[in-house]
Amino acid sequence: MSIRLGDIAPDFEQDSSEGRIRFHEWLGDSWGILFSHPADFTPVCTTELGLTAKLKDQFAERGVKVIALSVDPVASHIEWIKDINETQNTLVGFPIIADHDRKVSELYDLIHPNANDTLTVRSLFIIDPNKKVRLTITYPASTGRNFDEILRVVDSLQLTDNYKVATPGNWKNGDDVVIVNSIQDEAELRERFPAGYRAVKPYLRLTPQPNRKTA
Ligand code: BEZ
Predict the structure, then answer these.
(1) Rounded CA gap, 17 and 8, in Å?
(2) Is 58 annotated as catalytic?
(3) How many CB atoms lie within 10 A of CB 45?
(4) How is the chain split among helix, strand and coil, in percent rounded to 5?
(5) pLDDT at 176 over 90
(6) Among 199, 161, 148, 194, which Cα is nearest to 178's?
(7) Does residue 190 contact residue 197 with C-beta atoms inside 8 Å?
């Protein structure tokens, strides 16, 4: 079954490199990132998992727990993690699900038979503390993902959940944001956006990021 934005992320119980995982229980009240990769001991996946391990502090700052998945068994994951740590100069500090019976792959539609009928695709889901799926992406096996982009989306989701704004194309944390068009009342605009705003068009109003940290 394919997963759509706003769906509750399917719960499951599965083995992992860090023991048995009950997914919703494991997530607790955190944000979550579940990402699949085609296979252990492959070059692109090795770099992706290394990058994710290196971004540990950035994920923690945002209250995000990370978990990877492939259909390889636990013993393979454990051997591969040693290689990742060695070659990527890091320490993998998150679990890798061993989806040997493809239970999770079926729940999350991670095997696309017209691409490959046995390997999991390179998919990624951002899940919010209410267990709702907020982002889905699927990349080809030959293209590694950009994990700075994943952090950027988390920043955007966490900002726009709390303020009546949206983030423009190529926005990054600290840049100006756009005011949602449902707010038209001038008194409300002044209250919500005390730093003021600039109307480029009536439907395109820019304001400093409301929670921007000043140095
Ligand atoms: C890789 O991670 O390097 C990879 C995996 C499957 C197909 C192609 C590349």
Answers:
(1) 25
(2) no
(3) 21
(4) 30, 25, 45
(5) yes
(6) 199
(7) no
List all residues whose CB is within 6 A of at least one atom of ligand 1: 38-39, 42-45, 141-142
Report the chain's mean pLDDT, rounded to a whole number.
96
User: 101 CA distance to ligand 1 centroid (A)?
Assistant: 21
Q: What is the DSSP letter of 8?
A: B
Which of 211, 181, 169 lies closest to 194 in space, CA to CA? Answer: 211
pTM for the predicted model, two decimal places: 0.95
Q: Which of 3, 21, 45, 81 is catalytic?
A: 45
Span from the CA of 178 to the centroid of ligand 1 (angstroms)? 38
Q: Which amino acid is at 184?
A: Q
Q: Whose CA is nearest to atom 1 of ligand 1?
A: 44
Compute the radius of gyration of the chain from its Cα atoms.
19
Q: Give me the residue label for tokens 């740590």.
A: 85
Mind listing the pLDDT tens digit for each residue in 118-165?
899 999 999 999 999 999 999 999 999 999 999 999 999 999 999 999
Question: What's the pLDDT score for residue 180?
Answer: 97
Contact between 124 and 41 under an 8 Å Cβ cutoff? The reply is: no
